[in-house]
Amino acid sequence: MANQMSQITAIALSLRRRLRRFIPLLIICTFILLPACQADRVSPTHLANASFETPNPERPTARPAGWRPYRWGGRGEFGYALTGRTGERSVLLSSEGGADIAWGCEVEVKPFSRYRFSGWICTEDLEVGTGRGALFNLHGIPGAESPPVKGTSDWISVEFEFETGSNDAVQINCLFGGWGSATGSAWYDDLNLELLESIKPIPYVSIDASMTGTPISPYIYGQFIEHLGRCIYGGIWAEIIEDRKFWYRPGDEGSPWRIAGDPEILEMDTRNSFVGEQTPVLALPGDGGTYGLSHAGLGLVTGREYEGHIILAGDTEAAPVEVSLIWGEGSGDRTTFTINSITSDYSTFHFNYTAGASTDDGVLEIISRGSGTLRIGTLSLMPADNVEGFRSDVLDLLRQLDAPVYRWPGGNFVSGYNWKDGIGNRDRRPPRKNPAWQGIEHNDVGIHEFIRLCELINTEPYVTVNTGLGTIKMAAEEVEYCNGSADTPMGRLRVDNGHPEPFGVRWWAVGNEMYGQWQLGHMPVEEYITKHNRTVEAMRSIDPSIRVVAVGSVGRWDKAVMPGSAGYMDLISEHFYCQERPGLLGHTAWAAEHVRRIADAHRGYRERFPELAGRDIQIALDEWNYWYGPHVYGELGTRYFLKDALGIARGLHEYYRNSDIIFMANYAQTVNVIGCIKTSKTESAFATTGLVLKLYRQQYGDIPVEVGGAPEPLDVSAAWTSDCTALTVAVVNPTRDAIRFPINIEGAQLTGRGTRWVITGPDEMAYNEPGGRTDVEIVESEVKRLRAYLKVPPMSVTLYRLNTR
């Protein structure tokens, strides 16, 4: 009996071991055999304030609660009418000269569902110009619109049905004009949104690692920096003095400088300025009083050393001159450097300080109690740990980001920029009004500094030439300055400015957004094609090895440029920016939708234009990002939230899916200005989007593989590493629920072990602040045993690196 029991036990254990091998497959089959979606019970949907009876508490006579005005073109009036089809109120839109405007509100909907929308419209003398009339529509969802109402009519009921797709919120518009202008008046009332059918996807993922695509270009992890806001000055560059070359008269609006003592002592010398158009000259009365200039708002850190210099000239009686760094109100809250003698010739005096306290309102003070004239040429102050003028903390983050290419100097800025302003002695480079944006361009960061930055962070330079107000000669000379030998005119000038060897710049953008009327030097596309082609001819005559990127924009512009300049480009540029979109799913999908739209358009161009035959002109998406919200970090210094990070990750996934036609992408812009790195005066940190770019650049694979199944609402991509020692799988979960899903991987011999990284946070609006809160981080963990299913947290990016045999 014992023997029989022993045999039975052995057989049972053997069966158990065998069954355990099939359990993962059974789990997958169970999920696959389930319907891909489950229908929800149809229920009515509540559209808040659908009859406009509730006023906005802050503007009760002008606006209904939950609704806001939108203007896309023309001039029109937004009314909150004391009449309605039912009740006592409705909304009114009207225009005498023509307008495209709307009252809009955002409403949550169920994704992957079908709805019916209905509402009532009344019109008076509504004439259609270039638009459609008065109608309802869903912003950004093609075809989701009602029939338009025109002329004069009593209340008319209109309706339409739509599918939400992956949107979990929509913007409903009471639209006047509609993709064009209209005149007259229209009233809107009694809206209704009815859920007709809803399904709940049950995701499952299959990966065939034997089915590989075009290798992913590393250049899609590129970055873009522009002379705008606090991207370079106040961001990458370490200078803490603003307007150090006195573009503004001290004491005037816009100037950070204030006058100590009687303001009448100050004159601005515009005939013999040290640098730029004017230099401050102090006429010291010699009455024993304290006179000079002071600059507040400096960021200082306790114990940190600062180094700088000042360039002075004047009468000998003007000395001594005291240059003090101040961090408080007390007499001991300062350190002073004393210049005991000056001459009529400008001299440079160097100083070092150690801050005695931390403050964001430190002061640099230049004081004299002497007589005669004191001329202040320029000055500089930086943390002593700067690296050749760059902030050391920002350089550290840039190295972690590890972007392979940086586009510079613009952007809109470049169309009014003369690159020769940025060469030579930095103290003598003229300050200019920023040609495209607010503020002053100090010209402290020019081509030499940019090339050095690329060397310091081990990246390639991608230089944009000015084809706006700039000339063909200017572009050709810039190529020669960068790449010419020492026996060329511009090469010799580069040598004179301290760089004997050529920079060897390979990538060149020929202009920026020349299709836009906002661009300096904008011209019709037919004229621009001629200028572009001649510019490229001149640039290639200097260096035939360069690779040039043409200005592109999907639509009419591309349809002219692609055939007209096919032989004068190696890549074509495209740009897109995403604003905030209603709902989490819709917001995070927007970047990917733009990438897909642009890639599909260019595939169509290849089929349409015979001039492209035999040419593999790929896309450089050299500006792309989310761009909305208040400017927290200076001009265009938007804050990025967890939901934006999810969107950037989904954008990267779409680049991978289109690796055959997209060669380069440059996230815009790197620091502060819609940037993935944010800085305060003394601290820096990765924004949420920067964490995604860093993680994917460092850990995601290079050879995309086929992903199938039914992943929605997840976004899943996968790729081999270049040496095929690991398979990477990335999952974006843009929902507020944790999701557990089966995954079947074929074509790879996995060891079952690997590494997992997760980016998430407490809610979709979580963010990081330099020197403050850190809501979103990259969390790494070990995968010890890969199972037949994965579980991803809500609102997360999860990246697996799975080892293979």
Structure description:
By secondary structure, the chain is α+β, with helices and mostly antiparallel strands. The protein is 19% helix and 38% strand. It contains ten helices and 40 strands. The longest helix is centred in the N-terminal third of the chain and has 32 residues, at 2-33. The protein is globular, with a radius of gyration of 32 Å. The two termini are 46 Å apart.
Oligomer: single chain
Uncertain stretches = 1-44
Outline: globular
| Computed Rg | 32 Å
Strand content: 35-45%
Q: Please provide the count of β strands.
A: 40
Which bin fits the share of residues in helices?
Answer: 10-25%
Could you tell me the mean pLDDT?
94
Number of helices: 10
First and last CA, distance? 46 Å
Largest sheet: 9 strands, antiparallel
Structural class: alpha+beta
Task: Give the helix/strand layout.
Blueprint (H helix, E strand, L loop, with lengths): L1 H32 L3 E4 L27 E7 L2 E5 L8 E19 L4 E16 L4 E6 L12 E13 L5 E9 L4 E20 L2 E9 L9 E3 L32 E4 L5 E4 L9 E7 L5 E10 L4 E10 L6 E6 L7 E6 L7 E8 L4 E10 L2 E13 L8 H10 L3 E4 L23 E2 L6 E2 L5 H10 L3 E6 L6 H12 L5 H8 L10 E4 L14 H18 L4 E4 L5 H9 L6 E8 L5 H25 L9 E9 L15 H16 L4 E7 L8 E3 L4 E3 L1 H12 L3 E8 L4 E6 L5 E8 L5 E8 L3 E11 L16 E7 L5 E4 L3 E9 L1
Helix pairs in contact: 4-5, 4-6, 8-9, 9-10
Descriptive labels:
single chain, 805 residues, alpha+beta, nine-stranded antiparallel sheet, nine-stranded mixed sheet, 10 helices, 38% strand, globular, disordered N terminus
